[in-house]
Amino acid sequence: MAKIHIMDEILSNKIAAGEVVEKCVSVVKELVENSIDAHSTEIKIELIEAGTKQIKVVDNGTGMDEDDALTAFQRHATSKLLDEDDLYRINTLGFRGEALPSIASVSMITLKTCVDNIGTMITINGGKIEKQEKCEARKGTSIEVNKLFYNTPARLKHLNSLNSELSNIIDYINKIALSYPNIKFTLSNNDKVILNTAGDGNLLKVINSIYGIEVAKNMIEVNTSNDDYEINGYISKPIISRANRNHIITLVNGRVVKNNELNKTIVDSYHTYIMEGKFPIVVLNINVDSSLIDVNIHPTKMDIKFSKMDGLKDIISEVINKSLNSTNLIQTIENPKPIISYEQPKVVVQQELELERVEYPKEEIKPLIVEESKNEEYNNEKIEVEKIPELYVCGSVFGTYIVCQNNIGMYLIDQHAAKERINYELYLYKLSNPDNNIIDMLFPITIELPLNEFIIIKEHIDLLKNMNINIEEFGMSSFIIKSHPIWLPKGNEEVAIRKIIDLILTIKTNFSLEKFNDKVAATLACKASIKANDALSIEEMENLIDDLRKCNNPYNCPHGRPTIINFTKYELEKMFKRAI
Ligand code: ZN
Ligand code: ZN
Question: Which ligand is closest to the CA of 532, given by its number?
Fold first, then answer.
């Protein structure tokens, strides 16, 4: 029996509206998804001139008999949808049946396919079947789409530049390759191979093929589940970041979906690990029973709603936090190029670098192996991991970077960033766990504000009171502050309070106490922390490192900048040609 059914008219009208072939990528998408549906394990996409001259897709899938091959080019043919219900419970690659005839009507197509050792070849020009004959039997299907839009000059004009057509195709093929690590994808343009995946089911290898070894080396595998969702995939270490969210890829039951809420959850989970405006590379597979999702499919995009969204967001942020929290994230400098390309550095050694006199630890430093929390309920507060290894302070350079060593290598710590992190975590803790340790001010501070600002502060006065800042109205448009919590940065108490008031003035309608506290902690931490160029004694440096080591995330300041970087002994030896 023919596998392709003629689709019910109502259904096809429902979806036909948006099914317009506009770009080369829509053709590639249609053909590749057909190949996937045909259970192919190898799909080759060959383009000439970014697909504008030719798009050829060759697969090793099931193939079609002559009847099916002809039906595929008729309108309202689909192998996907049988009744309207299917629209709402789609688990396969969506519905098609409209796109292939549309493509055929605006191009010259040669199709070769084969079933039971009988090969069929069909040639279609502008939608008209020109030739239909037997041909050599080769497993699978090959479709060549030539001269797209040759007969519709108006649409031809609408094609973008070759570069942009190609980049859309690459983007699509990357995503589909990540969705199907079991399928071997080869993409080439003008005979130049752009992507070639192994097709052996290893997602990390696909990531390697797309992003290269540097990225693949810095991915962390994640794996988690709750009663409703099963999640697995890879997230990048914070040192790998991108300028946009494009590389955060979520798949639901094997299909790439774009869901802003999920993206936001992922980005938020990297809060303070990555600088603002930078984004991680993430590939997450979400497996869920299809009864828990509501797929609203529009041919050009797919919108998906999860009925247990909060639970999903929780396990995603939990697994990302846990993974970042249990991984050694010290950035190791391996490529010396950026370092030696600096102009002659003026090294101001503040403490003498008496390397000889610093005792090398005799015993091997334990490698930074992280204890897996085995099946136990994950405890958000404490994972015993040696995040910062034992370090011996040598001195500092530029009055800014503490120089340390151990037998693994040399470490530089940015003293401001480190102190900022320590203070940030302290303040965040104090803000979310207010205690009654307050201090009366010798001289109360009065804060005079323009009337409009006075009104805003008055409205949010509980925020200050809950922090144990004793604030009262004082006259027409001023406040008086008589006591404050003891943890406010010493010597900077007034500045700190004024900063908090400034932050209250920037509050927008979608207020979140958690975010507000976070901002207060980060702002005060910056104010309270030693600056670059503040001279520290060796002992102060050692204390700073000890405090940093106790932090939840010792690797970044609250703004996502690194606190510590590492040059391995081996890399140094390589640079000095002592080792090859
Ligand atoms: Zn700062
Ligand atoms: Zn910072």
Answer: 1
Cα–ligand 2 centroid distance for 30 (angstroms): 47
SS3 assignment, position 327? coil
Report the CATH number of the 218-325 domain.
Answer: 3.30.230.10
Ligand 1 midpoint to CA 523 (Å): 8
Fold of 434-528: Ribosomal Protein S8; Chain: A, domain 1 (3.30.1370)
Q: Tell which wins on pLDDT, 71 or 16.
A: 71
Neighbours of ion ligand 2 (CB under 5 A): 420, 557, 559
Element (H or E) spanning 162, and its range? helix 162-179
Q: Report yes or no: 89 and 131 within 8 Å, Cβ to Cβ.
A: no
User: From the CA of 275, which ligand is nearest?
Assistant: 2
Tens-digit pLDDT profile for residues 200-245: 999 999 999 999 999 999 999 999 999 999 999 999 999 999 999 9
Region 519-530: mean pLDDT is 90
Distance 556 CA to ligand 2 centre (A): 8
Q: Cα of 558 to ligand 2 centre, how many Å? A: 5
Structure confidence at residue 385 (pLDDT): 60
pLDDT, tens digit (0-9, with 9 covering 90-100), for 7-51: 444 444 444 433 457 789 989 998 998 899 899 999 999 999 999
Task: Calculate how far, in angstroms, residue 420's C-alpha sits from the geometric centre of ligand 2.
Answer: 6
Q: Residue 244: which residues within 8 A CB-CB, separation 6 or more?
A: 279
Q: What superfamily would CATH give domain 9-196?
A: Histidine kinase-like ATPase, C-terminal domain (3.30.565.10)
Do 405 and 393 meet the contact criterion of CB atoms below 8 Å apart? no
CATH topology of domain 331-424+531-575: formyl-coa transferase, domain 3 (3.30.1540)
Ligand nearest to the CA of 561: 2
HEC profile of 552-571: CCCCECCCCCECEEEEEHHH
Indicate if the pLDDT at residue 4 is higher than 60: no
Distance 396 CA to ligand 2 centre (A): 19
- Higher-pLDDT residue of 372 and 130 is 130
Residue 340 has pLDDT above 60, yes or no: no
Spell out a b/e string for 542-561, using b for 16 or more CB atoms within 10 Å of the CB, else e.
bebbebbeebbbbbbbbbbb
Q: What is the pLDDT of residue 478?
A: 94
What residue spans define the domains of the chain? 9-196, 218-325, 331-424+531-575, 434-528
Distance 322 CA to ligand 1 centre (A): 26
C-alpha–C-alpha distance, residues 418 and 413, integer Å: 7
Task: Convert the pLDDT of each residue in 350-383 to its tens digit.
Answer: 332 333 233 433 333 333 333 333 334 434 444 4
